[in-house]
Amino acid sequence: MKDLFSVAGKVAVVTGGSTGIGAMIARGFVENGVKTYITARKPEFLEATHAELSQVGECVAIQSDLSTMEGVNAFADAVLEQEDKLDILINNAGATWGAPVDEFPESGWDKVMDLNVKSIFFLTQRFLPALRAAGSADDPARVVNISSINGITHPHMTNYSYSASKAAVIQLTRHMAADLGPEHININGIAPGFFPSKMTAHLLADDPAEMEITGSPIRRLGQLEDAAGTAIYLCSRASNFVCGHTVAMDGGVVANAG
After folding, report:
1. 3-class DSSP state for residue 66?
2. How far are the Cα atoms of 35, 117, 193, 210, 216 from residue 213, in angstroms, in the given order?
3. 3-state SS assignment for residue 68
4. Number of H helices and number of E strands within the chain?
5. What is the distance between the alpha carbons of residues 172 and 113, in angstroms, rounded to a whole number?
6. What CATH number did the domain enclosing 200 receive?
7. How would you write the pLDDT of the chain (258 residues) with one tens digit per residue?
8. Are 137 and 184 in contact (CB under 8 A)?
9. Domain containing 111: what range?
10. Contact status, residue 130 vs residue 84, Cβ threshold 8 Å
11. CA–CA separation, 78 and 87 (whole Å)
12. H-run or E-run covering 108
């Protein structure tokens, strides 16, 4: 029982691992003994996070653009050249787009759907042999798909493709979990609320604390420990019997929505 939450010795991939929630999860893994591959599109942010995390544990950075199938395949190939088993896959890479409903462009729809939904399915598909090789009945491999509370409740923003994509991630999580659970691959999701990140910077520019007070019963933004702790739980023995669910990691915002 004392090792229920241990992830030490595992190998993980965290997409979108250079900033925001991805970087928080990656730090939690690295500090707890996980060899962690991080990837992102912008090399300057990726290298900065890699340098920081390498001071506390084993971190490998591989630049990629997961918005295209070429990018998905190139990244998967790069990881699989070094690893034949993968214990943990965190599908976190994502994008958003905002525009009024009458003006919302097809480009904003396709960009978000390709990265937020399509890349999750096909990257997971590419890693299935390595996930199967790592998983067992006593210790399944883990896939954690990062959704959003915007996929659960009305976001009160004009981010139509984002909210639709994140709702799709929740259903994709259920569907793949039911199909792959018998193969010792547990798939779950996390739906974050408001965390400081590049994606939420425009919403938090004025008064971040006040914004959360209006929606969150616990009256604060998400923190590093919240993201890391939830991911570690879903990737440890403590959650062996949890499969196909998406955890709202939001300080009660969804519950408070009525």
Report:
1. coil
2. 37, 31, 13, 5, 6
3. coil
4. 10, 7
5. 13
6. 3.40.50.720
7. 789 999 999 999 999 999 999 999 999 999 999 999 999 999 999 999 999 999 999 999 999 999 999 999 999 999 999 999 999 999 999 999 999 999 999 999 999 999 999 999 999 999 999 999 999 999 999 999 999 999 999 999 999 999 999 999 999 999 999 999 999 999 999 999 999 865 555 555 555 555 545 678 988 899 999 999 999 999 999 999 999 999 999 999 999 987
8. yes
9. 11-256
10. yes
11. 16
12. helix 106-113
The Cβ of residue 207 has, within 10 Å, a number of other Cβ atoms equal to 9
CA distance 12 to 141: 10
Q: pTM for this structure?
A: 0.94
- Domain count across the chain: 1
Asked if residue 4 belongs to a domain, the reply is no
In a domain, 116, yes or no: yes
Residue 68 near residue 35 (C-beta atoms within 8 A): no
Catalytic residues: 162
Structure tokens at 151: 């996929």
**In-domain check, residue 173:** yes
Place of tokens 């399944």: 140
CB 132 within 8 A of CB 184: yes
